[in-house]
Amino acid sequence: MPLVRNTTPMAEPHAPDERKPVELLATGSDEERWIAARNAAETPEALSLLTRALSVERVPRVREAMFTALAKIATPESASVALPYLRSEDAGLRTQALDALRAMPASAAEHLSGLLDDSDPDVRLLACEIARALPTDDASRVLGELLESETNSNVCSAAIEVLAETGDAASLPILARCAARFSDDPFLAFAVKTASGRIGSSER
Amino acid sequence: MIDPPQMTEDEFRRLAEFLYRRTGMVFTESKRYYVERRVWERIDATSSSSFSIYFAYLRSEVRDEVEQLINAFTVNETYFYREDHQLACLTTDLLRERVATKRPGDPIRIWSAPCSTGEEPYSIAIWLLENWKDVDNYDIEIVGSDIDTRVLEAATEGIFGKRALMRLSSEVIARYFHELDDERWQILDDLRQSVRFSRVNLVETKETRPQGRFDVIFCRNVLIYFDDESRRVAAENLYENLLPGGYICLGHTESMSRISPLFEICRYSEAIVYRRPEELRRAR
Amino acid sequence: MPDNSTRRVLIIDDAALVRAYYRAALEAHGFAVGEALNGLEGLEKLLLEPFDLVIADINMPQMDGITFLQMLRSKELPVSSVPVLVTSTEAGPHDMAAARGAGANYYLVKPIKQETLAEYAAIFCGRR
Q1: Predicted TM-score (pTM) of this structure
Q2: What is the nearest CA distance from A156 to chain B, expressed in angstroms?
């Protein structure tokens, strides 16, 4: 039979590399760095290792594994390693950082109020997506607060997008006030109308 | 029986948008009736006092509620030759690509994870023996893994009922099973000894790594239910378990777009399959 | 013979409200619309069905708009040549240059008026 018997010993997988992650991350091939990144969460000094390695890594798949390691560690400190990359000019890197933060919602939540208050509207915008991962009531509260004072219409739209999912009766007047402030923005008016509709009928 | 309370259109849209974002599944108006019924079953089962309360619970991913809800919409029954278009793709396209760089006698390794009670790995074995012209030219190793040791025991035993065999012709049944009694058939010893079963949690790298590298992995209807972090880790594990150029097949309602950007998308005759990229050959 | 000239537009944006807004605008102008939530899903849709135009956002989960463009342009014809109109909240020259460099046909800064979107859709669906 061309099918291999299950009594045949299985081929030994490769012996694990004995070199230390710090060495592999510095000098290894793409695959070696990727494996080292995957293993990094379990090493002592993981955070300093990953912080340094992320700052020089150019291969997206290896960076992704580093971000996964941060998400596995899942502490406010590991989340803070990902945070600066939200500001990157590289759209791919911003996405990777945001996805990592989404994968550690409780840790990311510790930084959320700072992010929602950031001077850079692009950061505030991405922060609305982090708020989506909060428990429903918290998300609505935090984004409602943002909406009351936010001056950038795209950031408002990002908050409204999440409120369409999480919002409650208390969100409705906040949404209405926002629409009034941005009466020139056609998308925002549409967004408020649609989000209010989603919320309005759910109070049963 | 009293009709369940109806969902408002906006409640339905809110739920549909959440499910689309979370799983990639699209629920249009035409499916509303089924969704409503299932939602009200779950509202009851979770003792939620309203749709809003239930929706907050669903969003929180505290337990496997997404799986509980979605399970009702996908056919969960496992049986032989389920999703046979993927088996056809395996022999017509995937293995053809894989053996392009293999020599006669080289191994081909195929992983079914999760394998549940064994229908999938045994189906792969039978399908290859029945349909692949090159089946005798390679050493084919089929591994079935699951997190649940009870289903693995059943898989090893290889006893199945009528429903599991409903897609198989009587010739195929006669060739690979012997009848125990009216209701049960057992896979022939030869074939039973040709599938290796192992207990593996797909999220645990320590458990996935020792399984080695595969040419093709079938990982159906499990990844989409993991939380964000587990999905990433499991996807990386599966990538590591693939040979460069190796393929991974998901369930037909699943998409890597909700799971991981690691894999290349391959379109083959009406099916989408994913691939670990080939190694780039670089001068060092 | 039936007139098969309905142009098909694929909207790739992770915001459901944005997709709904664009859909309303495009359908009102006679376009057929498909949707995807991120670049990966967009690529899958493009591999399965033909589209005359893609409208893609930049910031999306799993695969951003720039990476989507790079992957798309490396595929085979005819899929790889579909016109792509990039939308973004960023108005800076760096982002426009990145989009152009990745193979975008045009770049619109959000918020976008529905009439504007329909206008550009008509222009880019005419060109192949």
Answers
A1: 0.95
A2: 19
